[in-house]
Write a structure and sequence with these properties.
The chain is of the alpha+beta class and 214 residues long. The strands form two sheets. Strands 4-3-6-7 form a four-stranded antiparallel beta sheet, with no helix packed on it. Strands 1-2-5 form a three-stranded antiparallel beta sheet, with no helix packed on it. The chain is elongated. Helices cover 46% and strands 18% of the residues. Helix 2 packs antiparallel against helix 3.
C-alpha cells in the first residue's frame, strides 16, 4: 500500500510533471519539424501533370500552411479548393480526396459525400472523353480491292469489325488487333448494294460506316 502511495506522490510532484511536459513539448516540436521537412521534400518531387498529382500538391502545400497552427482557419480560396477536391470521386481525385475531407472536418462535420453517384458520373464523363474524336473512315468507297478502314487513332485494345446487310444479317466478322490504325477490307465477295460496317471495342464507340458495292 505504501508503495502505491509513494508512486502517486512521485507522479504528482510538480517538478516531475514539469520535466515530463517539457520532454513532451520537445518531442512534439521535433515531430513538427520532421513532418515539415517531409512535406517540403514531397512538394519538391510531386508533379502537376495529372489531376491526382495536382490535388496531392495542393494538399501538401495546405498542410505546410497550417502545420504550426493550433486554430484551423482557412482562407476562402483554400476552402473552395478543399470542397472541390473533397467532392471528387476518389478513384479520379486520388488520396488527396480523403485528406481534403479530413481537413474540412475541422471546420464542419455536416458534409456528406455520395461516392457511388459521383464515381458513376465521373466514369460516364471519362468514357465520353475517350470516345470524343474516335472515328473510322472508309477509304475506297464504292468497294474495291484497295478499300480499307482508317481509324482516327490507334485502337487502345482489340476490337471486332462486322459487315452487316441492311436487313441485319452479319456478312463478315473479324477480330481487330490492338494498336490497329488501318484495316484492309479483304475476303469480301458481296453482291451489289449497300452495307453497314460496325466497329466494337469495350471502351470506345465508333461511328457506323456505309459501304457501297457496285
Amino acid at each position: 500500500m505504501s508503495t502505491k502511495v509513494s508512486a502517486v506522490a512521485a507522479n504528482s510532484d510538480p517538478q516531475n510533471s514539469y520535466t515530463a511536459n517539457g520532454k513532451y513539448l520537445i518531442q512534439l516540436e521535433q515531430v513538427k519539424i520532421n513532418t515539415k521537412d517531409s512535406l517540403l521534400n514531397l512538394l519538391a518531387t510531386v508533379s502537376d501533370n495529372s489531376l491526382q498529382s495536382k490535388n496531392e500538391k495542393f494538399m501538401t502545400q495546405f498542410y505546410l500552411n497550417h502545420i504550426f497552427q493550433t486554430q484551423f482557419i482557412y482562407s476562402q480560396p483554400e476552402t473552395d479548393s478543399l470542397f472541390y477536391i473533397a467532392n471528387l470521386c476518389p478513384y479520379l481525385g486520388g488520396k488527396a480526396v480523403y485528406k481534403a475531407r479530413a481537413a474540412l472536418r475541422w471546420v464542419t462535420d455536416t458534409l456528406v459525400y455520395d461516392d457511388e453517384t459521383t464515381c458513376l458520373i465521373s466514369s460516364m464523363r471519362l468514357k465520353e472523353e475517350d470516345n470524343a474524336g474516335a472515328t473510322v473512315q472508309l477509304i475506297g468507297n464504292p468497294f474495291s480491292k484497295n478499300s480499307m478502314l482508317q481509324f482516327s487513332a490507334a485502337l487502345q485494345e482489340k476490337g471486332i469489325v462486322k459487315v452487316v446487310s441492311l436487313q441485319g444479317e452479319i456478312i463478315k466478322e473479324e477480330i481487330i488487333p490492338e494498336s490497329t490504325i488501318s484495316l484492309p477490307l479483304t475476303g469480301l465477295n458481296l453482291p451489289g448494294g449497300m452495307y453497314l460496317i460496325k466497329i466494337y471495342t469495350k471502351i470506345t464507340t465508333f461511328n457506323t460506316v456505309k459501304l457501297v458495292v457496285q
